[in-house]
Each structure stands twice: as C-alpha cells, then as structure tokens.
Amino acid sequence: MKYYRELKELIPKSTDILFIGDSIFQFWPQAIINKYTGGKSSFKFAVGSDRTQSILWRLQDTNLQPLNPQRVVLLMGTNNLGDSAPACAVLVATKQILDRIYKMWPNVSVTIVEVLPREEGFTGRQEQRLSLNAQLRTLKDLYPKLTTVNVDYQMSCGIVADPLQQSGNPPSEMKDVQCGNFLPDLVHPAPPGYEVLGAALQPFFTDQGK
Questions:
Q1: Which of 107, 99, 72 is nearest to 205 (CA)?
Q2: How many domains does the chain have?
Q3: For a designed S-S bond to 44, which of 19, 53, 114, 143 qualifies (C-beta 3.0 to 4.6 A apart)?
Q4: Do the strands 146-149 and 71-75 form a parallel or antiparallel pair, or are they unpaired?
C-alpha cells in the first residue's frame, strides 16, 4: 500500500499514454518507454503483484478521469494465472476493467498486451495462458476501439509460436538458445525484453496500429 500511496501522489494532470497493469509495467524503465512513444507523455499506473481484481479496485479508488489519455495500454493476468485462476474468471475481470475505462474516457483507444510467456521453457501455465489470450482477442468484437498485441514469439526468442502466424520452434529444438529477454525469474522482462515490448507497441503509440 505504501507504493500505491506514493504512486497516487505522482499522478500527473494529463498524459497521452496511460499504462495500467502489474509489476511488468511498474518496472519498465521510463527511458526505454520514451524511445518508442514518439515524444508523447506517458504514465505508469501499475503496482507489483496486482491481480485483475486489484487493478479494478485501484481504478475505482483513484480519480484518473482528468488524465484524459489518448491511449490506454493494459498488461495484466499473469499473477492470476500464477494463482491458478481460470481464464474465464480473468476475462470477466478484464471486461469490468474495460467498462470502467470506457466509462471514464468513451473515445479512448485501448491496447491489451496479451499475457507474456513465462517460466522454464516458456511453458508455465501454458494451457490457461493460451486460452486467456485467445479469449482476450475476442473482446475486439465488443469494444470497437480495442486492439490486442501478442509478443510470444518475440519475447521467447522464437521458442513460442505466434498464435496468429503459427510460427515457432519446439523447445526441444531451442534447448541451447539463451533468451535474454527475461530476468532469471522468467516472468519479468529484462531490459532487452522491454525493448521488444516497446518496438511491438510503437505503432500503437504513434497511432499507426489503430
């Protein structure tokens, strides 16, 4: 709660890009973010260990409406999967979060970063993760100004297939690949991984990805 109280004190008067999520966004170095945002301002409303229900509570507890961002970027759910929460439950909470966002800013563009691959071989919680990500992509039918981004292939150094391209290499063929995109916990990105994330999101920061 101490960090959250401090975070609330840092909320700016306005921002172009608002990041909402857990520790993956919290620890994203601002210097790396700035390389990809095309000069736009950004703010990270993100708290480590947050589950989707925690994020929803924070959105209800904090008045973010004056920020009036052009784009909101969401990345959340990995902590729910770590608790063995079913994908359907995470999806319900995600819808509630989106409803809250669109209530504050009806015309805002929202980009959801699908849950990143995790753990040894990038196979941790894989069934639930792939199911959740597939369900997140269906939300575009409900929210016209919503886009989703999958970075499985890039973040895993080619081990995990891109679900839209079906390109990837079996872990058995990649056993000698040293992927430096994650920290040793294989959950949080390392600086090179944050570069990958920034490059994937850059078209949306500059409105080319819609």
A1: 72
A2: 1
A3: 19
A4: unpaired
Sign of CA dihedral 102, 144, 132, 153: negative
How do residues 151-210 score in pLDDT, each as one tens digit?
Answer: 999 999 999 988 877 555 554 454 556 799 999 999 999 999 999 999 999 999 987 666
pTM tops 0.90, yes or no: yes
Residues 5 and 16: their CA atoms lie apart, in Å, by 22
Question: What's the half-sphere exposure (Cβ side, CA atoms, 13 Å) at 72?
Answer: 26
Whether 210 is in a domain gets the answer: no
Is residue 114 included in any domain, yes or no? yes
Domain that holds residue 154: 2-205
**Contact between residue 135 and residue 91 where contact means Cβ atoms under 8 Å apart:** yes
Give every CB contact of residue 67 below 8 A, 6+ residues apart in sequence.
11, 12, 13, 14, 15, 18, 43
Do residues 66 and 28 make contact, with C-beta atoms less than 8 angstroms apart? no
Closest among 134, 132, 181 to 156, alpha carbons compared: 181
